[in-house]
Amino acid sequence: MSSEAIIIEQSKKKALSKRKMRKRKEFIKLSIIRLFIIVFTLFIWHFLSGRVIDKFWISSPTDVMQAIYKWTVSGELFYHLSITVQETLLGFVFGALAGGIVGFLLGRWTYGAKIFEPFIMSLYSLPKIALAPLFILWFGIGIDMKIILAAVTVFFLVFINTYAGVRNVDKDMLENIRIMGASERQITFKVVLPSALTWIMVGLRTSIPYALIGAVVGEITASNRGVGYLIQYSAGQYDTGGTFAALIILMLFSIALNFIVTGLIEKRFLRWKTDQSN
After folding, report:
1. pLDDT tens for residues 53-101?
2. Which residue of 182, 191, 238, 265 has the smallest Cβ count within 10 Å?
3. Residue from 147, 26, 165 nearest 100 by CA
4. Which CA distances in Å does 27 have to 22, 24, 31, 33, 260?
5. pLDDT at 145 over 80
6. E strand or H helix at 275, and its extent?
7. Half-sphere exposure of residue 176, counting CA atoms within 13 Å on the CB side?
8. What is the torsional sign of CA 96, 97, 99, 100?
9. Burial, 4: exposed, middle or buried (Cβ in 10 Å; 0-12, 13-18, 19+)?
10. What span, in angstroms and rounded, lies between the C-alpha atoms of 122 and 125?
11. Where is the ABC transmembrane type-1 domain (predicted)?
12. In the prediction, which pLDDT does 1 show?
C-alpha cells in the first residue's frame, strides 16, 4: 500500500472516530436533558398532588409506584403485561406482513390498484375502535379478537406507506432498466423493493403504537386480562394511582417496542442510510 493510500485510510479512521465521539456526546447530552424533564415533571406532579389538585384526580408518583410494586410482588404485572405483549407483537407481525404484501402487489399492479384502492381507502376511513364490538361478535372475547383488531389497525398503515413507496419509484429509471434487459424479478428485488424500503420502514414505525392501541382497546372493551383490563378495572374502582400506573407501563412498553423496530430492524435494512447520517 502506498503512503498516500495509508494517509487517506488514516484520515478516514480519524473522521469516523470523530463522528462516533460526536454522536456519543450528543446521546449523553440528550439523555441528561430527558432525565431532567422526567425528574422535573415528577417533582411538579408530586408538589401539585394533594396541595393544589385533589389526589383523586391526578393521584401522585408515590401512589403510582406503590401500585406498580403491588402488581409486581403479586405477579399480576408480568401476567397481564405478557398477554398485552403477545397480542401486540402478533397483531403487529400479521398486520405488517399482510399490509406490506398487499401494498407491494397493488403498487406493482396498476390495474388492480384502480379496482381495489377505493374499497381499501373506505375501510381505512372507519374508526378501528368501532370495529371492536363487531369483532367480539365474530371472534369472541379471547386473545384472538385482540390480535385481529391490532392486525387490522397495523395493516392499513403499512399498506398505505408500502403502496406509496412502490408507486413513487422513478418510472424513467424503471423503463431504462427494462431496456437494458433486466427481468421483472430483477427489477422487483433490485430496484423497486430497495427504493420502497424507506417508506415501508416509516409505515412500520408509525404502526407500532397503533398495534398497542388495537390490543388495549380490545382488552378494555371485553377482557379479564391484559394491561387494558388493569386500566378498566382500576378506573372502575376509582383507583387513579392504578390507572396511571397501567398507563405508564404501556408507555414504557411502547418505547421499548419502538426502540426494537427502529434500532434493530432499521439499522439492518437501511444500513446505508444510517451510515450516511453518522
Report:
1. 888 898 899 999 999 999 999 999 999 999 999 999 999 999 999 999 9
2. 238
3. 165
4. 9, 5, 6, 10, 17
5. yes
6. helix 271-277
7. 6
8. positive
9. exposed
10. 5
11. 81-261
12. 52
CA proximity to 253, closest of 82, 30, 38, 42: 82
State how far the Cα of 10 lies from the Cα of 43, in Å rounded to an integer: 49
Residue 224 carries which DSSP code?
S
pLDDT of residue 274: 47
d(CA 87, CA 27): 32
The mean pLDDT value for 130-144 works out to: 85
Q: Do residues 173 and 180 touch, judged by C-beta distance below 8 A?
A: no
Nearest-angstrom CA–CA distance, 219 and 232: 9
Of 216, 247, 199, nearest in space to 99 by CA: 199
What does the pLDDT read at residue 265? 66
CA distances in angstroms from 177 to 128, 196, 272, listed in the order given = 41, 17, 22
- Do residues 160 and 203 touch, judged by C-beta distance below 8 A? yes
Give the separation between CA 65 and CA 231, rounded to whole angstroms.
Answer: 15
Q: Stretch 128-143: mean pLDDT, rounded? A: 84
DSSP helix/strand/coil, 127: coil
State the CB neighbour count (10 A cutoff) for residue 194: 13
Residue 4's Cβ-side half-sphere holds a number of Cα atoms within 13 Å equal to 0
